[in-house]
Amino acid sequence: MKYLDFLDDDDKEKAQLLTTLQRYNEQFLSKKKLLELTGLSKFLLERYLAELNKEYPQLRISEEYYDEIAFQPISNEIIQELQYHYAERSPKFRFFIEVLVEEKSIKKFQAEQHIAKTTLYQIRTKVISNLKKAGLSIQKNKLIGPEARVRSVIFDIISYFYFGERYPFTHSEQKIQQLLQQLVSYFNLDLTFLQKRKLALFLQIMQSRRLNHHDLQENFCTVGAKTQQQFGSQLAMLKKVLQSSIPTSAEEESHYVLLFLFVSDMFDCDLSFNDDLLAETKDTAKQLVTKLSDAFQLTQKQEKYLYHSFLKKVLGLSIFRQNYTTFVDISAYSYFSEVYNPLHKLVLRFIRKNHFCLSLNLSKNEQAKLYYDFMFSILAFLEPSQFGNPITIYIDFSHGSAYTEYISQSLQRFRDLNIVIQKRFNNTTQLSISDYKITELTCPQIIWKQPPSPSDWAKFADLVVELREVENEKLEMF
Hints:
four-stranded parallel β-sheet, two-stranded antiparallel sheet, Mga helix-turn-helix domain-containing protein, single chain, Mga_HTH
């Protein structure tokens, strides 16, 4: 499913054009190349560039000498602002929210939007076609499918355009904010701004679906004895609050809320899961921990931490399958491949070969989500030295020991590159940094005559990555 398909066709093309321009921030880009990248006609490209200039004058897109396209660097903030603005004025997005999510009558929607019947039919056809790609179907203008999956798809689409902005529902969010505050109070939650936004959207979608009589088909978990003992009265209040607003399935929904809090790292509670689901997720987490331990000699503490972290990630993906509020772009794979090559290969191979991961029929975005979830959990808890031999660096500046120590300490920001600073040069040294070339050395040398600039640091990191690639090639040979 492509999120931008919920925009008007022209707005979709402009959003894609702006994203293409962003990839070439501060780089040479000709109009000819831009036509090739976007597939637009010359007429449409010139029209869209003019409209983007009018909507966002700060971009200052212009045609320079030799057909070069010049523009101010495009930030992620501008991309998000543009997509939000386009969603706000899109009849397709409004149809999705008001008719399919809130289940307003199609006649009432048509009258309020002042659109012809043929236009309404075209809008409906395009929205339904897009949702079918996510495995959902529409019957009598109602979203049909596994209920947990329906809610997750709604969550993803709204998050893509509105995360950080006021959500696009037509009815008041006051009751949702009350429920949010009750949860924070009941379970003493310490939430960040974005966690509150995420939880508010989850609750809004849950209550909207319940109001329209779409209940969960299965009970994923029950509350364990430890949490029941510690939060029994709070759990009873949560169930009562949910039952007072919508009488059906309050117990299953309260468990569903706790599960969301658990896998989102908002509330560490004791839950007893559906036996089949838990058995498969447990086995998957154990398998990955075993593979990591065999490859990187994990400590018992690391194994325990990673097992519980992986269990949450796999449970979260198998039940909620929410993509947008995490990384789903595979472009960063190359960085991890260069810096953590053995780990990168192990995790990627596991996701693509593991039986349970395969049974989930993960999309490319969902595979990417799981990849980053695993990688960040591992990198947060393992020491760089566990990923292989460090790159050894010798530092010798004519400015004196104080300056040499300053550079040594500054290098610690590159901890993830797994480097070691040597006090003396020896035959294991792989890189030297100084303010003069040292003729006696045979290893690569970096010469910094002035305190290093951001560009100098970037070149240093690139060189260390190149040395790391050489080490990875040696490992593969043997």
